[in-house]
Specification:
By secondary structure, this protein is of the alpha/beta class. Helices cover 44% and strands 15% of the residues. α1 packs across α10, α4 runs parallel beside α6 and α6 runs parallel beside α7. The mean pLDDT is 94. The structure holds nicotinamide-adenine-dinucleotide. The site of nicotinamide-adenine-dinucleotide has 27 residues, from α1, β5 and α8.
Length: 284
């Protein structure tokens, strides 16, 4: 059901690669809620061709940009304002990539030039986007910028590797820039810390299926899907959350506040056979 929460709002959505992408779901929802926006991704991602389909479905122009390149970002912001006919109201940063994860290098054996790339692509790109937007005064008052994070910024989860450091930096940039942009222009900057989600970026993480299963058993509400994450993003772009800024907002079914759940415990209790138990206790 649509509520017209983004009627008249304009934005830029970074990071839709394919139908599984969180940004893809956000684009569909934003369109449904009445927004107009530009879609962007790297030239390599655009060559894969799937983004054209989304562009058609949302009536959205596509502008290539490598989010680590200041020049690409300037071109993107200026052209977006031209195409959308004015300043924007929201930005989604849904970007993440670690060459160390891709190459299977473990955290105690990092390649430092890859590490710098991880930080540049997955975290510093948010700073660059905000800095370019501010330089061109591209975001309207009460605008909203959202970046996607993960609980590995606060807790150590096996396999997440240098992406954990990138997420910690990303969340810090959201706070630091959120102060400046809030004070000057009443623009909100937040991160959403999302459950593990089956996407191209997610499935690159070692042991990802087990992580999904562990989170599902631990979270009282279960893992949040990409479509549910899109719903949450829409509320943050809307006028209903005008005083929410500089926050890392967990969207994880309660995972981040849990220690051990009954469902997880039964998995590790050698004397308890969850499958053949006749009665499950009510308090999971
Ligand atoms: N999937 C998960 O489990 C999960 C959980 C929490 C947070 N997140 C975060 O959500 C965001 C979106 O990831 P996703 O899971 O939808 O996967 P995805 O692979 O669909 O999206 C990642 C996107 O980053 C883009 N990208 C990579 N390098 C770029 C660059 N230099 N410039 C611009 N774009 C670039 C890719 O082209 C891709 O579109 C990421 O920040 C990710 O870390 C994902």
């Amino acid at each position: 059901m649509a509520y017209n929460l983004l009627e008249g709002k304009k934005g830029i959505i970074f990071g839709a690669l394919n139908e599984q992408s969180i940004a893809w779901k956000v684009a569909l929802k934003a369109y449904e809620e009445g927004a107009q926006f530009v879609l962007t991704n790297t030239p390599v991602a655009l060559r894969m061709g799937e983004l054209d389909e989304l562009g058609k479905a949302c009536n959205a122009p596509i502008i290539p940009a490598d989010a680590t390149s200041f020049e690409d970002l300037e071109n993107l912001i200026i052209k977006s304002m031209e195409l959308l006919g004015g300043k924007i109201d929201f930005v989604l940063h849904s970007i993440g990539m670690s060459p160390n994860v891709r190459k299977g290098l473990s955290y105690d054996n990092l390649n430092y030039s890859y590490f710098e790339k991880t930080l540049d692509i997955s975290a510093i790109s948010l700073h660059k986007i905000l800095q370019v937007c501010r330089k061109h005064d591209a975001i309207n008052e009460w605008g909203s910028v959202v970046a996607l994070s993960y609980v590995a910024a606060q807790r150590t989860l096996y396999g997440y590797n240098d992406m954990a450091d990138a997420k910690a930096l990303l969340e810090s940039i959201a706070r630091s820039f959120g102060y400046i942009y809030g004070r000057e222009k009443r623009i909100r900057v937040n991160t959403i810390s999302q459950s593990p989600t089956l996407t191209t970026a997610g499935s690159g993480i070692r042991g990802f299926d087990n992580l999904v299963d562990f989170s599902e058993r631990t979270s009282p509400l279960g893992n949040a899907t990409a479509a549910e994450c899109a719903d949450y993003c829409i509320t943050l772009f809307s006028d209903l959350t005008r005083k929410v800024t500089m926050q890392n907002l967990f969207h994880d079914g309660g995972f981040s506040s849990m220690g051990m759940s009954y469902r997880a415990m039964t998995q590790y209790n050698k004397s308890f056979d969850c499958e053949s138990a006749e009665e499950m206790p009510t308090e999971w």
